[in-house]
Design brief:
Length: about 70
């Protein structure tokens, strides 16, 4: 598995913690459910998701070259 955010491999020990990307349709303003949910197949490290939540703009290898 390869992280779609940083481009680095997701090791076997980290795969259970990996996030997966989904797409679907939600109603505006406070929707709690998604209709037509579909997995895209993209995955990301939990640490990359934390960085994204904190406002980082992640490009391939950005996290590893700083």
């Amino acid at each position: 598995m390869t992280c779609s955010l940083c481009g680095r491999p997701i090791e076997a020990d980290d795969q259970r913690q990996a996030w997966k990307q989904v797409v679907g349709w939600v109603r505006p303003k406070g929707a709690d459910s998604m209709v037509g949910r579909r997995d895209t197949g993209a995955v990301a490290h939990a640490s990359c998701i934390v960085a994204l939540r904190h406002g980082a703009t992640l490009a391939q290898d950005q996290l590893w070259n700083e």
